[in-house]
Design a protein that fits this description.
Elements (H helix, E strand, L loop, with lengths): L4 E3 L5 E3 L6 H32 L4 H28 L12 H4 L1 H15 L3 H11 L1 H10 L1 H21 L2 H17 L3 H14 L3 H18 L1 H11 L6 H24 L4 H19 L1 H16 L1 H23 L4 H19 L1 H35 L3 H41 L1
Helix pairs in contact: 1-2, 1-18, 2-18, 4-17, 5-17, 6-16, 7-15, 7-16, 8-15, 9-13, 10-12, 11-12
């Protein structure tokens, strides 16, 4: 219902006017204005009627005096209310249309008022202490439902921030950072240390088996391709069938040899491969040729389009994962954020020393903001109002306050009639 107050989301009383549309306010203002004008018109009609009929007798004299005073009071208050927003009857009367003419002065006064009463360090500190901000916040965060809601909002905010970033810019930054990080790493000694760790942990057998298995799988998967290469690079003085037969026998013997290396730990070729691997870390660290090959390989990787494509794919996967986690209230991201917030709330609530320290920090921060920026914030209020259109500002304020001001007109008419009757009574008593 219009004019009623209701509970806001924070549990405080919030006027329904805050939710009222401009059109609804306009209708209410017109209705109030009509009531006040109708009362003034009734007093005027009564005065004219009594005057035309002749004010004979005590009763008619009181009616005439009351109606006359009601007219004076109603017209005076109509003038006063109208003069706030516009010029009465369009006449250029001094000190009228006050909100239009004095908007800038009003802006300066309001800015000074805000500075002195809201942006004062002592006022802010006193208010923070009174509301027990840290204590109430810790209790609120300790509630799992509240923490989950904040976690959801936080995840949504992160997604919005991520969405504002241009993919090309992020990809360029990722590629640049990956390039810078890899370029700063000396790959050959790093590979030597990694290989030495593998061999030191007695994983050489598994490493050799893996290498042999990879080689065998490559031979099996590329049989036709390797046979075509063999035929293409061999002398052409034998039939194709002979080349194929020779290749197939070589291919089979090679795969058999690899299988024997896996099956027999004491195989001579296997031992030679293990000895070669055992000496590879030292060669990687000491051989200039191997070091240069490693650096060249690194440069080729950094200059390859595949690195840029991989960084782009990495960014897209991260965005997709973040969207999915933010959209699901039961996701790991939101659950971890909520649990962290609950833990923080309980920790603050159970530790008076931490709570006091945070309260002191908040108060100090409020004082610093008030001392450092109170002039700028007050200036922001002043400058904002000064940039408003004067006529539009007056119109909006009339919609906001005009209905209540019309009651001043009604009260002025009623009070004027009462004063007129009282004065007439006194005059009659003294005559």
């Amino acid at each position: 219902m219009d004019g009623d107050a209701g509970l806001s989301e924070t549990g405080t009383l919030a006027p329904a006017l805050r939710r009222e549309s401009a059109e609804s306010r306009r209708r209410r203002l017109v209705a109030a204005r009509r009531r006040a004008t109708a009362l003034l018109a009734a007093a005027t009609a009564l005065f004219i009627g009594v005057t035309v009929a002749g004010a004979h007798g005590t009763f008619l004299g009181y009616l005439q005096a009351g109606a006359e005073a009601a007219m004076v009071g109603g017209v005076a208050d109509w003038f006063a209310v109208t003069a706030l927003f516009r010029r009465p009857l369009g006449l250029p009367i001094p000190h009228t249309a006050l909100l239009v003419e004095r908007k800038d002065q009003f802006a300066e006064t309001l800015g000074q008022f805000v500075q002195e009463n809201f942006l004062n360090a002592d006022v802010l500190t006193e208010r923070i202490r009174a509301v027990q901000l840290v204590s109430r916040l810790s209790d609120w965060l300790a509630d799992k439902a509240n923490a989950a809601r904040i976690a959801g909002h936080g995840a949504d905010l992160v997604v919005r921030l991520v969405e504002t970033a241009r993919d090309e810019d992020v990809q360029r930054v990722l590629t640049a950072e990956l390039t810078r990080a890899l370029d700063a790493v000396d790959m050959t000694p790093l590979a030597a240390r990694a290989l030495r760790v593998l061999l030191a942990r007695e994983h050489s057998d598994e490493l050799v088996n893996a290498m042999v298995s990879v080689a065998d799988r490559y031979l099996a998967d590329h049989h036709d391709e390797l046979r075509d290469r063999f035929e293409g690079e061999s002398p052409r003085w034998l039939p194709d069938a002979a080349y194929r037969l020779v290749f197939d026998r070589l291919h089979n013997r090679l795969r058999q040899r690899l299988a024997a290396m896996v099956a027999n730990p004491d195989d001579e070729t296997r031992r030679q491969l293990q000895d070669w691997l055992a000496g590879l870390p030292d060669r990687l660290e000491t051989s200039p040729e191997l070091r240069e090959r490693g650096e060249q390989l690194k440069r080729d990787v950094l200059a390859s389009p595949e690195l840029r494509d991989w960084s782009s794919t990495l960014w897209q996967h991260a965005k997709d994962a973040l969207r999915s986690q933010a959209a699901d209230p039961e996701s790991e991201l939101q659950r971890r954020l909520a649990d962290a917030l609950v833990t923080v709330g309980r920790r603050i609530g159970s530790d008076p020393g931490l709570q006091g320290g945070l309260e002191h920090m908040v108060e100090a921060g409020a004082r610093a903001v008030a001392d450092q920026f109170h002039d700028e914030l007050a200036g922001l209020v002043t400058a904002t109002i000064q940039h408003w259109n004067a006529a539009e500002t007056a119109s909006q304020l009339e919609l906001l306050l005009g209905r209540d001001l019309q009651f001043i007109r009604i009260n002025g008419t009623v009070v004027g009639a009462s004063v007129g009757l009282a004065l007439h009574a006194i005059a009659m008593a003294l005559s």
